[in-house]
Amino acid sequence: MKKKQAKKIQPRPTLKLTIENLDNEGIGLAPHEGKIALVQGALPGETVIAEVEHEGRTHIYTRLRKILRNAPQRTTNNPCKKEFTCLGCPLIGLKYQGQLDFKQQRVTNALADHDLLREGLVHPTLPAEQTLEYRASAKLVFGRKRERVLIGLYQRGSHEIVDTGDCPIHHPLINRIINVVREEVQRQSISVYSSRHKKGLLRYLLIRVSPENNKALVTFVSNFRDLQQLPKLAKWLMRKVPEVIGVHQNINSSTGNVILGQETIKLHGLPDLIEQVGGIRLRIAPEAFFQVNTRQAVRIYQLVRQWANLSKKDNVIDLYCGIGGIGLHLAKDARQLVGIEYVEQAVRNAADNANLNELDNCRFVAGDAAEQLEKLAAQLHPVRLVSLNPPRKGCSEELLQILCGITPQQIIYVSCDPESLTRDLKVLVENGYRIEQVQPVDMFPQTAHVETVVELKRME
């Protein structure tokens, strides 16, 4: 009887490519036989060898295998050992000034695409004082590979987990906590969730650090409620890393990609983290959204406050207020401020933060931004300023029309996505507002993301 021969795995084809520019996500682009090849980690001006992973009708998706000719802009002291496997920081090989120029150009291009660009409108990108170890929060996934516990990020376009190890953009305390947790989960043989089998306990590890106080809050996201293994793990973690002041468990039994479930319980320590952010103190709960780069967040809040230039006779509405970061800075100068936020827990946090800072001229309401804006505008008439800090998708057409209808003298828009920002700005300009200035801010060094602050004024 003949032995069945093992099927040979054919090697993937490779291409020699010359990178011409970067796309909006910081991925290198190269023309090839009428298609565009995408090569993450490659920089403009470089000649590379890339392995083809998938070829579509217009694009070829590749993995960088070798750089034959370096770009002049490539740094010679890259701090990341996993640059080409993690792929979380596509610009980490690019010198910092090149990163700042890329982000300014991203914003400029988006405005030009919507016919909103005027000469000198976009300021140079506001650089970060700290380009490494700046990330004060992390959301990481648990996994196993050959019985080894992994804590890290999904590799781009796959469910393969890259163990982050000592990530150079994480605050050092985050890396310490990751390494301690990984070691103890391995030692205690605590089960790790498998998305394939829908079984296992630990799904995600959330860490939030106060850089100002060097304290941390840790949340284990679990597939089911566990009051045996996780309390022990929490107690052991707080002993091993005394800077951890509180550990929580969030229960998420859904099968999708949403990280947090509806229920969070405190296992040990304090319920939240108190951070000094510029001129205010913020109480940050485990589930609350807050900027990952605290120092750059302070600079944005100060910039918004400076541009607003409020007086004690001015009424302000803060849309998508979150836990009150922007609003509480503005409330210091205003007559009255009302914050609107869809997430009820964030509204409770914002109200607590107003009390913490002894600001009695502001209140926060939960609900749909468009509905609440329409209700509140009449109560606060006239509204001097509306500040906006929407999610990545931007604002609805309905909200923008209501906003223009209440005719605030000034609008300050803080955005995390140039494309949705410029789409919304076009609506505001068409309804009687003029863009005064645009300030890109490097909130996330080493990545392609850019935060943008825009001032608009009502034309008489």
Secondary-structure blueprint:
Blueprint (H helix, E strand, L loop, with lengths): L13 E5 L2 E2 L5 E5 L2 E5 L7 E9 L3 E11 L13 H4 L9 H18 L23 E9 L2 E7 L6 E3 L8 H17 L13 E9 L4 E8 L6 H12 L3 E8 L11 E7 L3 E5 L2 E5 L9 H15 L6 E5 L5 H7 L4 E6 L2 H13 L5 E5 L2 H12 L4 E4 L8 H9 L4 E6 L2 H13 L2 E9 L9 E8 L2
Parallel strand pairs: 4-6, 11-12, 16-17, 16-19, 17-18, 19-20
Antiparallel strand pairs: 1-5, 2-3, 3-4, 5-6, 7-8, 7-10, 8-9, 10-11, 12-13, 14-15, 20-22, 21-22
Helix pairs in contact: 5-6, 8-9
Summarize the structure.
The protein has 460 residues and is of the alpha/beta class. Helix content is 26%, strand content 31%.
Keywords:
single chain, 460 residues, alpha/beta, seven-stranded mixed sheet, 10 helices, 22 strands, 31% strand, globular
Describe this structure in words.
The protein is of the alpha/beta class and 460 residues long. The protein is 26% helix and 31% strand. It is built from 10 helices and 22 strands. The strands form 4 sheets. Strands 9-8-7-10-11-12-13 form a 7-stranded mixed β-sheet, covered by helices on one side. A 7-stranded mixed β-sheet has the order 18-17-16-19-20-22-21, sandwiched between helices. β7 (137-145) and β8 (148-154) form a beta hairpin. α5 (294-308) runs parallel beside α6 (325-331) and α8 packs parallel to α9. The N and C termini lie far apart (92 Å).
